[in-house]
Amino acid sequence: MLSKKQKFSSIGKKVLMALTGFFLMFFLLQHLSINLLSVVNADVFNKVSHFMGTNPVVQYVLQPVLIFSVVFHFAWGMVLEYQNNQARDVKYAKYKGNANATWMSRNMIISGLAVLAFLAIHFYDFWLPEINTKYIQGDMSGMKHGSDNFRYHEELVSKFAHQPIRVVLYIVAFMMLSLHLLHGFQSSFQTVGFNHSKYTPILKKLGNLFAIAVPLGFVIIAIYHYNSQPH
Amino acid sequence: MNLNLKVWRQNSPEEKGQMVDYQLEGISEHMSFLEMMDVLNQKLINSGERPVAFDHDCREGICGSCSMFINGEAHGPVKGTTTCQLHMRSFKDGDTIFIEPFRANAFPVIKDLVINRSAFDRIQHSGGYISVNTSGNTQDANATPIPKENADLAMDAATCIGCGACVATCKNSSAMLFVGAKISQYALLPQGQVEAKDRAQNMVAQMDAEGFGNCTNTGACEVECPKGISLSNIARMNREFLNGSITE
Ligand code: HEM
Ligand code: SF4
Ligand code: FES
How many angstroms separate the CA atoms of B82 and B160, rounded? Predict the structure, then answer.
């Protein structure tokens, strides 16, 4: 009956979702670590940003993997959501979803789409200008136009200083990311087959910590820069 | 106690069904839920109406046939029980009770609350067995040493009664808890190793072909399963499946 084997089995689909999820979580941690430098020391932040922005391994290996992961993860997430909805045509008249599962686990598509909307803003804010400067205008120097100072820290601060709306948007988006990860972190381990009577409970606690601390870190940085300039 | 029932009525697989309201008076709180349904049906028969069709057999929580989705939960509000093990003392006088069939496209309604769960049988046929010769030369059970822990886990998995509550309760109509249990009960035992490589592959392929949804690890199945089948069985199925995919 192996002929019935589809190209992507239900488990195969899920594993791809988990693997891209893993990569995105790794990316978040890396991104947060560098952003934290912007609070600690502008110089170091500039140097690390310049390194990340020009290093060929980061630019031509990690960046494409990241883009692929993001696109694949949200596109596949939507496909899964659609297929899962298709599995029950006649809905229940009464369905108590909260009696046996968390809101987070039942609404990954909502938190996911919210994060996607945020990503659109975020790309418009940072990624597109960066690509434009580096690869379209061909300016790989990382310097502020007409000066010999790095531009990264100043650009970052200017996005948040005197921009309460952007700060609020970031806060809301990271709350949604937090909800996404409160389920996603531990779920991805279960998906790849990791479930252990001793380690899984620890992993779930670690996941909660990750899901709260990482988004909170980004939020604190945004608020810090919002307040760092005189009002 | 007096009750307002809202029951799914559907004459045939083709017909579109609907929720119908019924009033019941004088129900004893000591009755089981199915006995309450018996009272309803007697009342319908007495007034010349068609009784509500529902599956039941053992009425003691072992056959798994009594599929009812009660007030938004598979087998009703009490955890770790089937519908036949649910008693009216779990409800209050004057309650409105929704009674629906287990819903999933892979479990089509045959009549009222009776559903067709043969998809589960076909999944079992595709790999939920071991090929041993049982004709007259059965081995002594203790001839093959098995670690106690594995024997216990296999036994836990084997307590699945195939009721379908996991599918019914899952927002994705996923059958992974059932399939995970059926794969685990063999994966943990030496007798199950002969077909291990293909078992998960074939059973998952059949599960997908039947039109069950994909698991999102919400864990609702584990909570609603009358036999307390653990999510770790799904993780084991995933491992067995990946192992079969990588080393085929
Ligand atoms: C930085 C961004 C993101 C991270 C770190 C992330 C992480 C994760 C993780 C770890 C999982 C669990 C995978 C599993 O259950 O095995 C997951 C699931 C999911 N993600 Fe994301 N995600 C992100 C963005 C998004 C976006 C933009 C969408 C857009 C729709 C999305 C939609 C989903 C959906 C629908 C699921 C559930 C899939 C399922 O189990 O059926 N995610 N995500
Ligand atoms: S896993 Fe539990 S809920 Fe699912 S069929 Fe088996 S006994 Fe029923
Ligand atoms: S009638 Fe057998 S389990 Fe309920």
Answer: 12
**Domain membership of residue B96 as a residue range:** 3-111
State the CATH number of the domain containing residue B172.
1.10.1060.10
CATH assignment of A7-86+105-227? 1.20.1300
pLDDT single digits (tens) B179-221: 999 999 999 999 899 999 899 999 999 999 999 999 999 999 9
B77-136 residues touching A, CB cutoff 8 A? 77, 98, 100, 103-106, 109, 126
CA–CA distance, A53 with A63 (Å, rounded to integer): 10
Which ipTM did the prediction report?
Answer: 0.93
What is the C-alpha separation between A162 and B169, in angstroms, rounded? Answer: 49
Question: Ligand 1 test: best mutation among A115, A118, A181, A203, most atoms within 8 Å of CB?
Answer: A115
Tokens for B81, please give them.
Answer: 């029980």
Q: Assign 3-class secondary structure to A168-198.
A: HHHHHHHHHHHHHHHHHHHHHHHHCCCCCCC
Chain A positions with Cβ closer than 8 Å to B: 1-2, 4-6, 9-15, 80, 83-84, 86-97, 99-102, 105-106, 108, 183, 186-187, 190-195, 197, 200
Alpha carbon of residue B179 to chain centroid: 11
Is B172 in the same domain as B95? Answer: no
User: pLDDT digit string (tens) for A128-172?
Assistant: 999 999 889 888 888 888 888 899 999 999 999 989 999 999 999
